[in-house]
Amino acid sequence: MEVKFTPEQKIVNELFGREIKYIIPEYQRPYSWDCEGKSDKNNQVNLMWDDLYNFYSHSRIETYFLGSMVMIGNGARIYRVVDGQQRLTTLVLLFAAIKCFIKAIQPMLKDAGLYEFSNNVINNVDDLIFDRKLFGVQTIEKKVRIENFGSFNYDDVLSAAIECQHNQINASNEDTKSEYLVVAGRYFKNRDFFVEQLQKSFLTQGEFTQKDAISLNAFFDFIKNRVSIVRILSDSFDVAFHIFEILNNRGLPLSNKDLFRNFLLREFDRLNSEKGSEASEPSKKWAFLEENYDLRDDFLSRWVESKNARQQQYSAYNDLREIYDHQYQDTLQGSKVEHFYKDIEQDLKHYTNIVNATVADERLRAKLLVLIHAGNNRYTLNFLLALWRQKRGSEDAELIDLVNAYEIFILHKLLLGRFSAGPIYAAIKLIQEGRYADATQALAPESLKIELLEKIKTGKLDNDAGKLLISKWIWLQEGFQDDVIEQTLLFEKATLEHILPQVPVPGSNWLSEFSGSFRQSFTQRLGNMTLLTTRSNSAARNYDFARKKGIYAKSKLKTTLKLAQQDSITEAFLENRHRKICNDIFRDLQLDLHT
Questions:
Q1: Which backbone phi and psi does 82 adopt, to 5 degrees?
Q2: Looking at residue 132, what is its pLDDT?
Q3: Torsions phi, psi of 59, nearest 5?
Q4: Distances (CA, A) of 215 to 149, 200, 203, 204
Q5: Taking 50 as the threshold, does the pLDDT of residue 250 lie above it?
Q6: I need a labelling partner for 293 at 20 to 30 A (CA). Which of 10, 69, 77, 490 fits?
Q7: Alpha-carbon gap, residue 7 to 68, rounded angstroms
Q8: CA quadruple 146, 152, 154, 155: dihedral positive or negative?
Q9: Cα–Cα distance measured from residue 431 to residue 389, given in angstroms and rounded to the nearest whole number
Q10: Considering only 271-285, 506-520, 538-552, which range has the smallest mean pLDDT?
C-alpha cells in the first residue's frame, strides 16, 4: 500500500482555520523556547518577534516564511504534531498576548469607536485560538491541545496563559516541582514578553490612539494573512517521523555556498557567451576566492544580512539574487557580474580578516577575539562586515570606536541582558548612512555603559563570562607575538581557574585565612580568576595556595606566572588585583572609571 505525504503552504489564518485541532503528543519534549538569555540560542521568542516586526515594518516581500511543521493527519482536521510544536505554541502565545494587551488597555478607552475596535480584536483572536461549537449550549475548545507529560498538565498551563491569567502554577510532586515550574513559567514569560513588545510598538506615550489602532490592525492582518508555514502531512507515523529526521538530521541539500558557486559560474559563462570569448575563465574566478580567502558556508548569509540590515527572508541565496538583480547593472567600466564579483571579493577579504582577527592594530585585534568568542557570531559578523565595508577596512579611530561600542553592547547582553538583534540592525543602517556617532549611541548609551561597569566591578560572573573577560585582560596585557618561540593565549585551549577555590578543601589556607563573607562575595569576581590549560586546571582544583603555586609556575602565561611569584595570597592582594583588572578593562572600553 502506497503511503503519501503532502506539503501545503498555509497562511496563519488557514493554519488556525475552523474545526482544526492540533495535538502535541506526550512523547514530544516540553515547550523549550525562551525570551530571556544571553544569545540567539536561548532567545528564540525574542528573535521571532524581531523577525516578524522588522519584516512587517520594512520588507517589500509579500509573505514571511516561518518554517515547516510535520504532522500526522488523515483528512479529519485533527493533526498530531511530530515537528513544529515550538512555533505552533509560540504563535498561540502571540495571539494571546494581543488579547491580553487589548484587555489591559480597555479600561482607559474613552472613544466608543476604539472600544468597539478592541472588542473586535479580542473576538478575532479567539477565533484563531478556539473552536466554538453548539451542542445545545455553546462550548469552546482550544485548537492546540497538549497531552499530559507524565504527571504534568501543560495543557492547563497553556489555557491559563491564553486567558491572560498570572502564573500561579503549583506542582504536587515535590521531586519534579522545579522542572515543572521552569517549563510552565515559559508560557507566561513568553506571552508577557510579547505583551511588552506590543506596548512599545502600539501605544503613544502610554495612550492607545486611533493611529495605534490602525497600526495594530495592520500588524494583526500581517500575522494572519502574510505569515506562512509549510505544513507537511502524512497518515503514517513512520513516514512523518522519517520526514522529520530528514529535515533535521540527514538532509544534504545544496548549501548556500554551492548555490553561490553555481550562480557565479553561470553568470560569468553568460558574459563569455555575450562577448564571444573565454576571457573571464569562470572556474578560475571561483578558485581565486577559495584559495585566497576564508570562504565559509556562513559567508553568504552574513553578506546579505549585512547589506540589507535585516535577517534573511527565505534563504541567503535568494536574498543575494534580489540584491544582484536590483543593485547591480552593466556600465562602461564593466559588466554587472564583474562589479558584483569585485564587491564580493572585497567583502570576503574583510570577512577573512574579521573571523581570523588578522588586523594590524593590537587593541582592535583583542576586541575582535573577544567578540568572536562571545557567541552571537551571526549578528557580530553582520555588524563588523557592514562596518568594514563602509570604512573600506581602514583601522581608523571611527572604526575602533564603533567596534568598542559593539563590544560594550555584546558584553552587556552576555553579563546582564536579554539579547535582541534590533539595535544591531539599526546601527548597521546608521553606518550605511555614514552616521557613525548615532550608531555608537544606538549600541552603547550611557545607561548601558553604567550597568556594564557596575556588573564587572561588583557583580558575580559565571564561568563563561569570567573566562572571556580575563582572556580580554590577558590579550591587553600580553599582546600578540608572531615569533614561533613566543606564547600567545589560545582561548579554546584555556580553562578558567579560580585562585580562591569555589569549594576549598578542608584544612586549606583558604578557610583559615579568608573570611566566609569574603569567599561568598569575591570568589566569582575577576580579581580571583586566571587561566590554565585543561590538564593544569584539573590538577590545581581546590587545594591550598602552596600546592597551586607549583602548578601556576608551569604556565606559559605571564599573568598566571606572576601568581606563582607571590609568597602568599591575601584578601587585600585579590582586591588590588581585581581593581587593576577592572580598571584596565574599563580603560580599554572607554568607560568612565569614576562612575
A1: -95, -40
A2: 73
A3: -80, 145
A4: 40, 12, 10, 11
A5: no
A6: 490
A7: 9
A8: positive
A9: 10
A10: 271-285
pLDDT of residue 374: 93
Give which of 178, 202, 232, 171 is closest to 98, Cα–Cα.
202
Residue 476 near residue 557, CB atoms below 8 Å: no
Contact 451, 457 (CB under 8 A): no
What is the Cα–Cα distance from 280 to 284, expressed in whole angstroms? 8
Tell me which residue of 349, 382, 384 sits closest to 369, measured CA to CA.
Answer: 384
Which CB contacts under 8 angstroms, 24+ apart, belong to 117-124?
117/213, 117/217, 121/216, 121/217, 121/220, 124/220
Q: How many CA atoms lie within 13 A of 91 on its CB side?
A: 24
Residues belonging to the chain: 595
H runs (alpha helix) in 227-373: 237-245, 256-275, 282-292, 299-308, 316-327, 336-355, 362-372
Give alpha helix (H) positions in 7-111: 12-15, 44-58, 85-105
Helix (H) or strand (E) holding 497: strand 494-498
Out of 47-56, 150-159, 272-281, 454-463, least confident range = 272-281
- Give 293 or 174, the one with higher predicted confidence: 293
Per-residue model confidence as pLDDT tens digits over 49-70: 988 998 888 777 788 888 888 8
pLDDT of 314 reads: 67
Asked if residues 31 and 186 have their Cβ atoms less than 8 Å apart, the reply is: yes
Do the beta carbons of residue 370 and residue 359 sit within 8 Å? no
